[in-house]
Amino acid sequence: MNSKLLSVAVLCGMCFSATAFAGPTLDKIRARGELVCGVNTSAPGFAAANSQGKWEGLDVNLCRGVAAAILGDADKVKYVPLSSTQHMTALGSGEIDMLARNTSWTMTRDASQGAAFVVVSYYDGQGFMVPKALGVKSINELDGATVCVQTGTTTEKTTADYFNSHKMQYKTVVFDTTEATQSAFISGRCDVYTSDLSDLAGVRTVAPDPSKFEILPETITKEPLGPAVRRGDWEFFEIVRWCFQAFVGAEEYGVTQANVDEVRKTATDPNVKRLVGTGEDMGRMLGLDKDWSYRLIKQVGNYGESWEKYFGPNSALNLPRGLNKLYKDGGLMYALPIR
Known about the structure:
Elements: H1 3-21, H2 25-32, E1 35-40, E2 48-49, E3 55-56, H3 58-71, E4 77-82, H4 87-93, E5 98-99, H5 107-112, E6 115-117, E7 122-124, E8 126-131, E9 145-150, H6 154-165, E10 170-175, H7 178-186, E11 192-196, H8 197-206, E12 213-215, E13 223-225, E14 228-230, H9 234-252, H10 260-266, H11 270-276, H12 292-300, H13 303-310
Parallel strand pairs: 1-4, 1-5, 9-10, 9-11
Antiparallel strand pairs: 2-3, 6-14, 7-13, 8-11, 8-12
């Protein structure tokens, strides 16, 4: 084969490869006119239906941001509530387009269950909550305790790992859904509730008297929570990843839902101009238009705005931001450069 034919063959092979690995999700979303997003059945701060039946939370806003970028409307989302035994199957089968269900990014899930985790959207850890009346001040005092835990979660395994490695006896009381697990603990069916710290804070908000429960000081695991898509759908993976970078990047540059239009008129920083759609066209690399990230900020806001609303001091959960602060404030949130 001469050099010209070889070059053509290589180029054709590259084109074929790009076509082969471009997943169908983006086309389906556009044809349907709606993003189908898997969320928790009830996880205050992340995803929960309010009194009007409208879904709210950080994970909900991740879905809304993707819908704004692709479809131009953050409200064009169908939410599918999923338990911890359903979520990976629903993603792999194509029942949902993306999973945003405060799900821990683990090797098992990422390497063997057909999911591709996109980013860490919330840094968490597993803790334990007890009734104050129990008089327990440390997890080392939980030998012989009955523990409420949701089946199918990483928490079920890490609880066993911790108690067994510390030669402590315990008995689990398992449930299929978040609501059932929370209800059982609040009603006194077990001594301890164990889950991510954010979930424990959420449980207290639904208790008749939150002051009766105490979260113990120890954290036994790292729980990096984040959205996932189906493995192999590289085009959609990139869209979800860069939507999150715009979400965090907007906070880094001080661009908010309220000021984005003014910033769009006055920005001179090339980084900000790209973010609000007046600089280079970054959307074309994602199969989107130039205003994809502007719409996300305009309709959803930035990461910090979602954090303050759903987890901050004026929220029901009232959690410290901790590792979820921006890197410049001592946290781990760091937007990749949009350039």
